Amino acid sequence: MKGFRVWGLGFSLIIFVLLYPIPYTLGAILASENDIGYSSLDPSNPFYFIKGIREEIELKLALTPYVKHVRHLEFATRRLREARNLVDKNPSLIPASLERYTSNLNTLLDRRTISGELALKIESSLTSHLFVLQKMHEDLKDNNAKRSIRSAVDKILRRPDIEKPARLKACEFLKKEASSSALNQAEQIVTKERAQKCLGV
């Protein structure tokens, strides 16, 4: 009987963690203008799998296309918060986090097919994402992590719904990195091509 109560308590705790919104509101609390905050649970945590379960539930409870897009946008922001956490904790995990980020990004429609509040929400969020990615790149020393950041920036810039000032700043970022001695020749060529395409050269 005692074992059953312990099992029940453990199960209740898991349900509480899955359904209670603290891990996600924390990031919003710490965020400021043009920023996204930090994650309270990232891939370096052994309980990170709980977050995936929660998000599956959130997506299943999204009953309209609008809510589903808002969920995917929030999931992308969460992945970026997690990658940001890893800058000082475990940079080797950043590439995988940014792969999941771009996967969520790829599910989002752009302003050619949507308009109104959702389009503005996506545009504003992606502007913040570009800012955060460039700051992460500046703070990192791990070359693989930095490479994944440049790739993520390029994928965002391929979308038409980026504010012009943010786009130009990100294009200049790629242009500057293309001449960096920290990149090998192949990386310099790829980054230069991305910068030229971005700037319309």
From TrEMBL:
Highest taxon listed in the record's lineage: Bacteria
Pfam families: DUF5667
Stretches assigned to the DUF5667 domain: 43-142
InterPro entries given in the database record: DUF5667
Protein's UniProt name: DUF5667 domain-containing protein
